[in-house]
Every structure is written in structure tokens, then in C-alpha cells.
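Reviewer 2 asked us to include a model.

Predict the structure of this chain.
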Amino acid sequence: MSPPKDAPAERYQLFQREGSTRWQMRFSLRGHGQIKRSLNTDDHAEAVRRADEIFYEAAYRAKQGMSAKVHTFEAVAEEFIQLILREVERGERRADQGKSEPSLIRRFFVGYFGQKPIDTITDTDLERYVEWRRTYWTEGPGKLITHIEYERGGHKLRRPPKRTAPALSRQRGEAVVLRALLRQAVKWGYVKTPPTVSIRTRKAPDNRRPSFEPHEFEKLTQTSLGRLTDPIMDGTGAEVRASDRRTWRIKRLDDHTRRDRAVLHAYVMIAAFSGLRPTEMYNLTWGDVVGYREGRGKGIDQRDIRLKARGKGMSGTAIPHKAAIPWFDTLWMMFERGMQREPLDTDPVFANEQGKRIGSIANGFTELLKAAGLERDNRGIKRTPYSLRHFHISEQLANGAEVIDVARNCRTSLAMIDKHYGQVRLERVADRLRPEWTRA
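Predicted model (C-alpha cells):
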């Protein structure tokens, strides 16, 4: 190592390591210890200029109560991750945060800011980050990633990434983590005043799931029942146009079409009277219809059932209205007729002619909606089978059911009830808003 060369006013020392022509600097500030930095130049005059700049910046930082050393975003992020893991271990954070937040920080925050000194990040940098994050999986680095690895139940799994922009709720959730990281950097003395993390997202659209008004649901069911009869009975029938321009009307339903429409009608009624999700309807087996076998042959008033709902990563028991029971009877009889035996507990409730689980009723449901003129709600949003669940919950609330009971029975949270299902028209609860004591 060459002998140190004194810089002006003894502020710092310049030196060259043995075997290197690059200049280095070292200096000390009270309360901050010794600081060493490479100046990345062979020229002595340029080394002095850079050393002055570094020294005065460090002195200013120390005077402002910050760390005299420059800390990169990546280094601070890793320190913050270790803090998260310690807090999880002490029970101060949820265990899932110890898995999700480190990967979020490394993939997105460090992926963008990297080696940038954390105290130089500005509001403008954050604005640019937001746009980069929105296009990460479609135009940015994520477009080259073929799969994402994760762990569940002690097993390492992988899934393909979603090639879409993150949902607004996810963007806001990530902003909370980034804000916490920057606030912690202030506490550690790495930043004097953090930039404002105001991730401006467009106002969330009205994403309430489309439902049915009572008169619309009545029209839907009447249309569905009407589609079970032969067209010749009411003088109508779908018009068919051949490629040679010949036209004719269908005068009789084939057995396959009639059966499909009967299953669809039962699906509509059970979903509306139970509030099950489409995935829960799909997974439903006869063993999940608790109490059904014991009640067969009895009147509806003497029967009761419970539904074991499985889907969306959760399970639970649902209490349906008794009005759903006759439609289970319909599906039971159709299974018996097609398979020449009673359904087993493992057989699907919604089965095709071969007794196999029906993959989806979405197309048939859309055709029914078109026939009833109810394909879209008053906002122009297309209805789906999920609209039957929304109808169920909205009707429960409109008819005085307690919100917490509805949430538990439908295996959802009070927040989700308020966000998606609580917007019941005031006219339908007018009587509850005008109690007896207010009436003249």
C-alpha cells in the first residue's frame, strides 16, 4: 500500500491499495466511525474532487441526524426483511407475512431501485416505479419468467404467472409495505424525510357483482321452465337457417337438450336458495347433501338438509332454504333414470347422462339469460352464474337477516359483504327505515 497523501485541511486521506492504481479515501466523523470509499479513478486531481464531494455530503448527512454512510436501497431492503422475519418469530407479525413480503420486496422493490442510494429516491422515482410495476408481467422483466415457485404444506410448487396488471387492491397492499420500509429507513437514520408513497391508482370501477331484482329472477325462472316444454306446444320454436337459405322451426326438443335444460333449471334454483359459489356447486356430491337420504319420501316441511361447501381454498357448512330440496329431488330422479341406480355419496350432484360431473354450465346459463333478456344488468355488466349467489345474499339482507349470520353461512367476511353484496336498493327496505314510532 502506498503512503497516504494528505488532502486539503486534513479532511480525509487518499491512498492506493497495493497492486492497484485506483484511488481510495478514508475519513472519520464523530459518532459515525471510519468511512472508506473507492473513488474509481486513477487521476489524483479527479480523486480529490470526488473525495471533497463525498466528504461534504457525509458531513451534511451527519449534521442532519442521518447516517453518514450511503446505504443502497437493496441493503436497506435486506435489513428490513430480516426485521420482518424476527417480528414473525416473536409473534408480532402474521406467519404468512414472513413468506409473502420478503419475496415481494426482492422481486419488485429491489428489482426496480436496486443499488440506488435510498436517500436519493424521490416522488418522481416512485411514480415511475408504479408504472413499471403495472407492466412488470406484460412488458417488463416478468415477461421472461415462465413460472413462479412457492411453498404450500411443506411442498414446493410452481405456477405460471398471470400476464396482467396487478389488481388495484394488490397495488395498494404493496404500497403499504413500501411505505413501511421507507419509514423504517427513517428510524434507522438512513433517510431524513421519506418520499411520499402516494401510489395514485384510478378510482376502482363499480365492481359489484351483477345480481337480479326479484322481478328479474321471477322472469328468469319462468323463462327457464318455458324452455323445458316442446316449442310445438306454444306455437313457437327456434328458427334454423341452413347454408342453402332454407329455414324451418324446431318443433320438438330432443331428450338431450331437455335434460340439459332441466339440470340447468335445478342449478339456478339451488344456487339462488343456498348462495353457494359456482366452484362449490361444481364440487358438490350427494355425500355433501347432509340429511337428504334420511328425508326422502317425507313432505318438505318434515325434511331438512345441510350442504358441505368446498371451494376457493376453504370449506364450511351452508344452511339452504327448504325451497332448494325439491330440486335436489329432481336431480336425484334424473340420475336414477340415467344410471339405473341410486347415486352414491361420491357421485356428483350435477351430473351428465353418464353420471360424470358436469364441467361447466356457463354457456347454458348465458343462453338462458339471452332468452330472458337478462344477459346484462342496468350497468351493462354481464351476468354470470355467480350472480345467483349475489341474488341470494342481497335477498337475505333485504329481508332482515343479520349481516354476520349471512357472512358465516356464505363463508365470506363482513368486509366482502359490505363491498359486494350490501348495496340493496333503499326502496326494498323502506319499511325498516320507517319504524312505527316515526309514523303519524
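The first helix runs from residue 44 to 63. Residues 214-432 form a domain with the hpI Integrase; Chain A fold (CATH 1.10.443.10). We have added this to the supplementary material.
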